[in-house]
Amino acid sequence: MEAPPVTMMPVTGGTINMMEYLLQGSVLDHSLESLIHRLRGLCDNMEPETFVDHEMVFLLKGQQASPFVLRARRSLDRAGAPWHLRYLGQPEMGDKNRHALVRNCVDIATSENLTDFLMEMGFRMDHEFVARGHLFRKGIMKIVVYKIFRILVPGNTDNTEALSLSYLVELSVVAPAGQDMVSDDMRNFAEQLKPLVHLEKIDPKRLM
Amino acid sequence: MQREEKQLEASLDALLSQVADLKNSLGSFIYKLENEYDRLTWPSVLDSFALLSGQLNTLNKVLKHEKTPLFRNQVIIPLVLSPDRDEDLMRQTEGRVPVFSHEVVPDHLRTKPDPEVEEQEKQLTTDAARIGADAAQKQIQSLNKMCSNLLEKISKEERESESGGLRPNKQTFNPADTNALVAAVAFGKGLSNWRPSGSSGPSQPGQPGAGTVLAGASGLQQVQMAGAPNQQQPVLSGVQMAQAGQPGKMPSGIKTNIKSASMHPYQRPCFPDSSLAISPGYVTRPPGRDRPHLQLWR
User: Fold this and answer.
1) Hey, which residues does B225 pair with through a beta bridge?
2) Is A179 an interface residue toward B (CB < 8 Å)?
3) Domain with A87 in it
4) Pairwise CA distance, residues A148 & A163, whole Å
5) Within a domain: residue A10?
6) B interface mutation test: which of A37, A55, A61 has the most B CBs within 10 A?
7) Tell me, what's the ipTM?
8) pTM of the full predicted structure?
9) Residue A161, in any domain of the structure
10) What residues in B contact A28, CB-CB < 8 Å?
């Protein structure tokens, strides 16, 4: 069963509903270097951070129509890093002025037996991929440039092939619900990356 | 007579002012060359030359003006030559001509060029006359043609280099790729989709259809799962997970309503319909754990 829309949920102490604001685009391989240079200039000054992550998407199919989706991610290049479990809700539609895709987001770190746990709960893995790329930050904005690799032999993360000749570029912010000025900041930042990359709000439903 | 005199005076004044301007710009150019030669750039020199050329042009225009009487018809005759210093003259010439004497007059009131220069000019004119009108015409034409060719080449080069700079040299992103990547991340389009249907191997990449599962959202395409071939899938419904923002809060508040299991013979033991705490004792390995696709997680 899908979680009810955020606006209907009563605020009953404890946690704040976090929303993820997202803008996506892509860049071809040969232009990656220029994009990285530009991001290094625009973003906060830190060591360039690369990452290799293995993400698995789990589905829980109920009697209802839509399955419940959880995303489990683990780092392939950082030993000892915790696994990361994420729930992403449906994109909130309606406000055409909002410049970013907004969806409910729940993030948590877990231990390594996450997959066992999920299987026991009845989740089944739907698909998996390896993401390899770079991470940048600017304030609360996170910019990730990564390439998606298809896993050819299930479970074997070494045997991968690239899905396309492009890198996916994502600009995301996780912020409490209701802070729409965040999307304005994101749009201003996205303007600075043109014409290398066009970051825009892409509705996944359109791409079914 | 009066009118002509007035015209003469007016044109003389105009000429004087033009010449004064020219003198000033020449002076500043020389100063620039002498004092700032190490910092001088070619565009700056070009600017000075352009200024000079502009002023010469206006001077020419003034001379050609219809109101200007022909100066050729005027003659300047020195009336008094004296070797004494003349203060007035000094003032007027800004200290350059102190004495109006025999040495100064031939230079300043000259109307013909130097004898050597005159000789050269005469020679050139005789050469030109010697060639003959036709040959001269041909030479003029070939010169014009070469000049125009050169100009054309230069302008073409300039145009090409400009357009080369303006043209975006290459596309830096591919919108189709963007869509493909977003679809892959959102719901696994193009990635190997795992179907726990017991059949071996990953489904063909890029095969949408029954196997395609969509990222969690209501109202999306329902995944058709036939009951019988899908073993060991107890039907769980109504899983609600508390919104836990920080690590460590995850285990709390998990309520599972577990309805009856599937009809398949290989099914888990039935649980009571109640809140279920996950305890070690509960976990029984469901049959088929050694199924190939599950061996991943060992």
Assistant:
1) none
2) no
3) 19-201
4) 6
5) no
6) A61
7) 0.84
8) 0.47
9) yes
10) 171-174, 177
